[in-house]
UniProtKB/TrEMBL annotation:
GO molecular function annotation: pyridoxal phosphate binding; taurine-pyruvate aminotransferase activity
Official protein name in the record: Taurine-pyruvate aminotransferase
InterPro entries the UniProt entry points to: Aminotrans_3 (IPR005814), Aminotrans_3_PPA_site (IPR049704), PyrdxlP-dep_Trfase (IPR015424), PyrdxlP-dep_Trfase_major (IPR015421), PyrdxlP-dep_Trfase_small (IPR015422)
Pfam families, A to Z: Aminotran_3
Database matches in NCBIfam families: PRK07036.1 (NF005447)
Record keyword Zinc-finger present: no
Enzyme class: transferase
Cofactor names: pyridoxal 5'-phosphate
Record carries keyword Chloroplast: no
EC number of the protein: 2.6.1.77
UniProt record similarity statement: Belongs to the class-III pyridoxal-phosphate-dependent aminotransferase family.
């Protein structure tokens, strides 16, 4: 097995664990163990491997968090970041001030995006990019003399981020706890996840029902009140939910019919995870009005997000901007941060030189095929995914979904994976996998072998009444 050959410092590991427990509130933390939970501290990383503070090496099949696409420790990315930080670390992107990396990256993204999506507004990550896209939709609709078009269509199980509006767009309603959400203008339609391995209806019938639901929602809310529809081409964090064939195209057609802008959230599906720079056009035959991107945009080496906007919308907004107040008041201090843009430029150059998308088109089907063999286990309810995004859904046998026992079972699988040197992402009763795009068939064999053995161990625990 590959190892990084890196050994972390034990003292700094110990203080990291206690400082973390005492002072950090993690995203999506278990609040009941605040202050007592000992986090896994990842200290070093190389290629597809990460090393914890005790020097234990794991294969990272989470890709950081869907984002470390080129793998860890890429000198060329590190150099690009350092060079730009030395030359000019930061200057304001507001108004009419720009930087070379931001301008160059915007041109590179436009060249690689579908249709006339040639205008880029940078953000700081996926949530701020998704929110920006909605704000652009609002501005556009109002600028066209349609002030009531402010409602937003989303889907149950969607994930669009953690800021206030992005969290409200997200459709995992079971996750909603004591926060407050925007409910007046956000409408969640049916979740589009279709699994041909377990569904008892045909893909065509399932699709017809989804489109019916969307038509009904549009009629209920009123097309003249809906600004936009936001959708991941394949849902990621909601549990790797793959829509039936034709869904993306059919939903775009409905949006066109009703003058609803289509926002494709490619934060996960973009930058190679499905074997293309952007999946919208090449995989799903749609040219949306906006694409939201982040994560793999920099291979996770720097935080950055972007909204790609069609020329049509940008020109319409520009023409209609109030003459006495033409300011477009959206954006952030770190929109298009020069160091992050330098990382993204180097990332795109490496992706193309190494034909990372071609590599994913080759190893992606191998990954899914290998994983599907795990369905023979009685504790595996479903294995689904596409190229390098996948998940395994666990079941104790007689119940499906995130019940307490199913979740306990999946957590046991996760724990056994971790013990055996594989990190998978635990979520409800799912083990989610999104490895760096540079994984080889050999790495995939190791991932599936460890996951399979962990499933077997957890299955034995279940039969022994220990779960
Ligand atoms: N959209 C999608 C599809 C995502 O998966 C995520 C993050 N998992 C986001 C938006 C939010 O991105 P960020 O966490 O960078 O704000």
């Amino acid at each position: 097995q590959d190892t990084t050959g890196l050994l972390p410092n034990q003292d700094s590991q110990l203080s990291a664990v206690s400082d973390d427990a005492r002072h950090v509130l993690h995203p999506w933390a278990d609040l009941s163990s605040l202050g007592t939970h000992e986090s896994l501290i990842i200290s070093e990383a190389k290629g597809v491997h990460v090393v914890d503070g005790n020097g234990k090496t794991y294969i990272d099949s989470i890709g950081g968090m869907w984002c470390v696409t080129l793998g860890f420790g890429r000198e060329e990315l590190v150099e690009a970041i350092a060079d730009q930080a030395r030359r000019m670390a930061y200057y304001t992107p507001f108004g009419d001030v720009s930087s070379e990396p931001a301008a160059k990256l915007a041109a590179m993204l436009s060249e690689r995006s579908p249709g006339d999506l040639n205008r880029v507004q940078f953000a700081t990550g996926g949530s701020t990019a998704a929110e920006s896209a909605v704000r652009i939709a609002h501005y556009y609709q109002k600028s066209q003399g349609r002030p009531d078009k402010i409602h937003i269509l989303s889907r149950r199980n969607a994930y669009h981020g953690g800021t206030y509006l992005a969290a409200s767009l997200s459709g995992k309603l079971a996750d909603r706890t004591l926060f407050h959400y925007e409910t007046d203008i956000v409408h969640h339609m049916k979740s589009p996840g279709f699994d041909p391995d377990i569904s008892d209806v045909s893909a065509e019938a399932f699709l017809a029902d989804l489109i019916d639901d969307m038509e009904r929602t549009i009629a209920e809310v009123g097309a003249d009140r809906i600004a936009c529809f936001i959708a991941e081409p394949i849902m990621a964090s909601g549990g790797v939910l793959v829509p039936p064939p034709g869904y993306q195209k059919a939903t775009l057609d409905l949006c066109r019919k009703h003058d609803i802008l289509y926002i494709s959230d490619e934060v996960v599906t973009g930058f190679g995870r499905l074997g293309h720079f952007f999946a919208s056009e090449t995989r799903f035959d749609i040219v949306p009005d906006m694409i939201v991107t982040a994560k793999g945009l920099t291979s996770g080496y720097q935080p950055l997000g972007a909204v790609l906007i069609s020329d049509r919308i940008a020109a319409a907004m520009s023409e209609a901007a109030p003459k006495d107040k033409p300011v477009f008041s959206n954006g952030f201090t770190y929109s298009g941060h020069p160091v992050a843009c330098a990382a993204a430029i180097a990332n795109i150059e490496i992706m193309e030189r190494e034909d990372i998308c071609g590599h994913v088109r080759k190893v992606g089907p191998y990954f899914i095929d290998k994983l599907k063999a795990l369905r023979s286990s009685p504790i595996v309810y479903a294995v689904r995914g596409d190229h390098l995004m996948a998940c395994v859904e666990c079941t104790v046998g007689m119940e499906t979904g995130p019940t307490a026992r199913n979740m306990a079972l999946a957590q046991r699988v996760d724990r056994y994976c971790e013990e055996a040197g594989l990190l998978v992402r635990p979520y409800e009763n799912l083990c989610i996998l999104s490895p760096p795009l540079i994984v080889t068939e050999r790495h995939i064999d190791s991932i599936v072998a460890i996951l399979g053995a962990s499933i077997e161990r957890a299955g034995k625990d279940l039969r022994a009444g220990e779960i």
